[in-house]
Amino acid sequence: MAFVKDMLRMWAHSWKRFISIAMITLLGVAVLTGIYAGCRDAFRSTDRFFDAQGLHDVQVLSTAGLSNGDIAALRKVNGVAKVQAERSQEVTFDLDGRKSATMQEIGTNGIDQPYLQEGRMPKKAGEIAVTRKFIRDSGKHIGSRLTVTPESASSDTSDTSDTNGADGTNETNGTDEAPSFPTKLTIVGVVLDPQNLSNPDGYSAMTSFRSTATTDYTFFAPSDGVTGTLCTSATLLVKGAAAESTFDESYENTVKQVTDRIDGTVKTDRQKARRQELLDAGNRKIADARAEADKKFADAQSQIDANRQQFNQQVDQIVSMQAGAAAAGAAANGANAGAAAAAGATTPQLDETTRETMRETIIAASPELTQAKQQLDQAQSQLNEQKASTEQTLKTKENELKTSIPQVRWYVQDRQQLGGFSALKSDLDSIQSLGNAFPIVFLLVAVMMSLTAMARMVEEDRSLIGTYVGLGYGRLAVASRYLLFALLACLIGGGLGLIAGFLGIPAFLLVVLQGMYVMPGLRLEYDWLYGSLGIALFVVGVLAATIYACVQEMRQTPASLLRPKAPRAGSRILLERIRPVWNRIGFLGKVTARNIFRFKSRLIMTVGGVAGCTALIVCGLAINDTVADLGIKQYRDIYQYDLMVVSDDSDASAMRTKVASDGRVTSSLDVRIESGDLAISGGGDGDSGKAGSSGSESIQLVAVPEKHLSDLGEMVTLQPVSSGMLGTSGVGKTGSLKLDDDGVIVAQSAASALGVKAGSKVRLTNGDGVRATAKVSAVNRNLIGSDVYVSETYYAKLFDSKDAKNTKNSKSSEDSEALTWNAMLAKLSGSDTSQTDYAESLEEDSSVMKAVSCAHMADSFKFDLMGAVVALIVALAGGLALVVLFTLANTNVSERVREMATLKVLGFFDREVHHYVNREMMILTVMGVILGLPLGRLVGGMLTMALNMPSLYFEVEVKPLSYVIAAVATMAFALLVQLFVNPVLDRIDPISSLKSVE
Which residues pair with 943 in a beta bridge? Predict the structure, then answer.
């Protein structure tokens, strides 16, 4: 009992060490669990929401639309739980200029169901539900009416809708029609699209650079009032996928098994069958056209024949009359009256030659008959020409049918290709990667501080340990006094850390996340396993340090432990050997130098602890500086142009005319911009039809006219880069990179994500879905977005290959160079504000699809989520620095109580004692700061490399101010600790402290 009382008394006396260990454990466990828990809560709530709304696991798109036969084939794939045919249509409407929207039919099979936020779901034709983004932008409300206009090419199937024909049995009837929706609309509800969780009321503008939406808004309509049998896509749910977390690898593997089956069994057969349906429908239409033409020609020929018969009858009557008159005259001149009577009684018989001669003579003598004959001959000639022309046209169409109907392609996509899903996943994964890295530093610092504190605690009880061992107590029992002390401190600190880690930090992160994304049903959850392992990790580390300290002391005999520890033998330090310097240092300075460098363990612990904390602060600020400069570097330095304008192909000429007529452009470059895909070559056969498969990046493909390749360098800073270490990259000389016909130039952001470098082979997909293997001639410095630059000639070489011709409309080699330059890069006159206003005004023009001002993008680019996490990390690192300095300062004082007492006996005033002790701590702190600043830059580079996000490359940047802030913050914490240490120095009693332990 006395042993226990003494142990409790010892614990109470060491309350400062207890608090230090508890606080370090609290911070470490909070960092370890907090970021993880916040991301996990977001993952789980989003996964529940996706399951509740039936977000599709797989989506199948086709360049020729999907027929009933396609849907039936998908239902037969092993592993498919549900299939839902989707019908949609792109429309436009007037809202401060022309805006576009996708009319989406609400599925009846429970897949991709919108989440109702306000009002009710639409049920009747003409009713729609809209997103909150539309309500915010338009100012409309539930009950408002809207009129839309279908776009001329509302879907990829519009060109083939009148030649499609599938009734589910591979029989074609040519009656499939593209979907058509009502145009007079009434808003009855506000919904959340499960495919896009961006929060329009928060700071969602920061994610606009990653938006993949092809239209401005999505309107949801019921099946009532929707016509057209052709489907624009099919969405699938996979068996067993709902039981897995959508963000885990197990879910991806489950879905991949089904996508592989579709690629391997269904896709090829249905692509061929669908194209054959189109060919059959085309042949049938040609046959119908031939039959209709033959009927019309037959009717026309019958009419001509009837008219010619009537004409011939008239001429024959005249011939007969003239022949009869001639015969009567001949009889009158004869002598035989009987012969004359006989001749007059009958019409003379004429041979065919004579008759034909008389016909021609009669027709020639009569202008009316001549004109009538000419009209009949002309009509016959025209009819013959029409017959020949029509037959030639039909034969030409028959010959061109196979080449005019492109190869049907299927694209099998999973959730990774949803812009909203991939943005959320990449954001959370990146934050979680930070949460996995920082606790390692906290753990190392906790072990170091625990070793320092517990070693001093054991050393103070040296004689007491010897007494207990001498009295027969086992070494394990004696060591348990310190092990239980450290264990209790860890458990209390860890318990508080779990509260902060599963409640405080997640609540903070989720507030920031909810400003970016809408996550219904979000709640905080506790993970017993992870929380227990988090505490156990720090318990093991601290107990290991405590065991080491105990073993170091208890391996001695009780007699040795009962005697005071012999002072360390005097020794020279390196500075003493530098006489010119040493001789000029004062007495107290020499004492300070000896105290710092002779006690190497204290030197290492103090400098290491301070350096670790400083490095954490620098690391957090480095990430903040890196993210803060992304927009400026990209839109001010890399992009030299001020404006990018994009239009539809049909409006390209009008767009250029409009921009030129405004007189704001000082120089420009016409280009072609397409949305495409970049993948590592060899990752597939290049014709898998699976967009965005593993190892791929969405890109912006920029084709440059052959005559203006040199002008690209005036619009975009072309600098070759090579990958470096720890977040660095080697950047070549500006202007040393040129676009040529030997390869493509790939943006650094995409190259870094895929591991692509100059000379690599990649698989490019253009805007038409045509794929080709291209050579990477260089990697260009690029931080935001994934641009791939290609010359006009190399573009034609890639995408006008045999495979490309089979998948595109027939195009002769002479026409292959006729690319439509649908975009313009331009430099503008005027201020940044005027340039931004001009870009906004251009978007209101009907010929302009998108106008982007680089000045606006540079000023508006934000990454609030990363900034919030960095602020949290810096705050926790600052707290750790404060605890570390407090622990080291108290340990330093406890080790030198007799020294301080001696100084007081020698006549040192309290202020002088303060200065004597604090000067050593400040010097050690400065040494730690000097070591921690470059260490923080090193760790910051490593962490930014882990932040692998779509279309972003983090070029590590640490501003001088960040180094100053980290150094000043650490020194300020050191000065703050002095305020707590000075009263301890004042309470040292020289008499009791200098008493002999014997």
Answer: none
Cα–Cα nearest to 764, from 801, 738, 812: 801
Burial 435-470 (b: 16+ CB within 10 A, else e): bebbbebbbebbbbbbbbbbbbbbebbbbbbbebbe
- Distance between CA 727 and CA 724 in Å, rounded? 7
pTM: 0.71
Burial letters for 99-108: b for 16+ Cβ neighbours within 10 Å, e otherwise? Answer: bbbbbbbbbe
For residues 890, 891, 897 and 898, what is the CA-based torsion angle, rounded to 10 degrees? -160
User: Are the beta carbons of 757 and 751 closer than 8 angstroms?
Assistant: yes
Largest Cα–Cα distance of the chain, in whole Å? Answer: 191
Q: What angle do CA 953, 956, 962 make, to 5 degrees?
A: 140
Which whole-number Å values give the CA distances from 713 to 666, 777, 932, in the listed order?
16, 15, 41
CB-CB neighbours of 696 under 10 Å: 23
Q: Give residues with Cβ within 8 angstroms of 313, minimum separation 6.
A: none
Q: Which residues contact 992 (CB under 8 A, 6 or more apart)?
A: none
CA 564 to CA 552: how far, in whole Å? 15
| 8 A C-beta contact, residue 727 and residue 947 | no
CB 638, CB 783: distance < 8 Å: yes
Of these ranges, 95-109, 348-362, 601-615, 967-981, the one predicted with the greatest mean pLDDT is 967-981
Q: Rounded to the nearest 10 degrees, what angle do helices 419-460 and 475-499 cross at?
A: 150
Write the pLDDT tens digit of every residue in 769-778.
677 889 999 9
The tokens describing 853, both together, are 């001002």
- Supply the pLDDT for residue 462: 82
Q: What is the pLDDT of residue 331?
A: 63
The closest alpha carbon to 458, from 543, 546, 558, belongs to 546
CB 862: neighbour CB atoms within 10 A? 16
Span 829-884, pLDDT tens digits: 888 888 888 888 888 787 888 888 998 888 877 766 677 777 888 888 888 888 88
Residue 239, number of CB atoms within 10 A of its CB: 15
Catalogue the E-assigned strands of 705-770.
721-723, 729-731, 744-747, 761-765
Conformation bin of residue 749: beta by default, left when phi > 0, alpha when psi is -120 to 50? alpha
Q: How far does CA 665 lie from the centroid of its chain?
A: 32
Q: What is the mean pLDDT of residues 438-446?
A: 78
Q: For residues 588 and 838, is the Cβ–Cβ distance under 8 A?
A: no
Based on its alpha-carbon atoms, the radius of gyration of the chain, rounded to whole angstroms, reads 44
Give me the DSSP letters along 580-592. HHHTTS-HHHHHH
Query: What angle (nearest 5°) sits at the alpha carbon of residue 991, between those of residues 987 and 996?
Result: 120
Encoding tokens for residue 908? 């040192």
> 47: which residues sit within 8 A by CB, 6+ positions away?
245, 246, 247
Per this entry, what is the length of the chain?
Answer: 998
Closest CA to 109 of 237, 197, 227, 225: 237
What does the block give as tokens for 898? Answer: 């007799």
Distances from the Cα of 952 to the Cα of 40, 517, 697, 699, 724, angstroms: 23, 19, 11, 12, 17
Name beta bridge partners: 118: 190
Reduced 3-state DSSP string for 75-114:
HCCCCEEEEEEECEEEEEEECCCEEEEEEEECCCCCCCCC
What DSSP state is assigned to residue 634?
I
